[in-house]
Specification:
InterPro entries: Aminotrans_IV, Aminotransferase-like, BCAT-like_C, BCAT-like_N. With about 270 residues, the protein is α+β, with helices and mostly antiparallel strands. The protein contains 8 helices and 11 strands. Helix 2 packs antiparallel against helix 3. About 30% of the residues are buried.
Amino acid sequence: MNSNQPEDTTTEFSLISSLRYDPDLPSATSVYAKERYPEPHDSPYYLLRFHQDRLLKGATNFKWLKAAAFLQQPLEKFVETLDKFIPDRSKAWRLRIVVDVEGRCSVDVHPASAWPLRCMFLPTSFDQLESLNSSFPWRLIVDSVPTKPSDFTTYKSTSRAHYDSARRRAGIKSPSDPIEVLLVNPLGEVMEGSITTAYFRRRLHHPQEEIRSEWITPPISSGGMISVSRQYALDHGFCTEQIIRVDELVDRENLDPKFGSYRPKRVQGSVFKN
């Protein structure tokens, strides 16, 4: 594959992070996660500390001093900022936090879709996920053009032209399409999905032992984004980081976890919102 993508010359952009606000989250945490969930356990904001940390890493990388100062405040103060945007604290909402170079924070708020909260904790049962949607699992397509890793593939921001281009090449027309495209770097390594973090199951063969499998996800060094769900999965031992090359992938990977020769430009795997 030849990378023919232009350098991202974006000069005006903001850092973003999206999460769920749900008043039922604290009680669900106590039932389904207990100690296998990062503090604070009593927050209605899903993985809020990870979201704050991701935004801070982005502000630090881009040397946005005012934004970094805002994001370095105690979590409790950050919560006070977000609380001002919640229309009704008795309902669930999807939040899109936006922080600009001047440290100004705005939050786009939309009603959250109904979702069994048990599926937001690790380990997640894929049988449970499959029962929620007849289109599960999504069809995954490997992008036909490599994407050059950059700050804009590592830090989540409003500069998303590279993701939009990959989705157009894959023929994805709507966010509701049960299709995802895997971005690949010029070295032929899987980076991530266009709107998701991807996980693959690799089968391990050991002489005189039962065949077992493990979940793996591409390392940040391959060029993918700092993902909140990925950090949660890594911290709690759900998966490990391993370089995943395109030529290792096989069709229907989540049903047959054995890696082998790569033939069709389509794989099935497991993806979570990043």
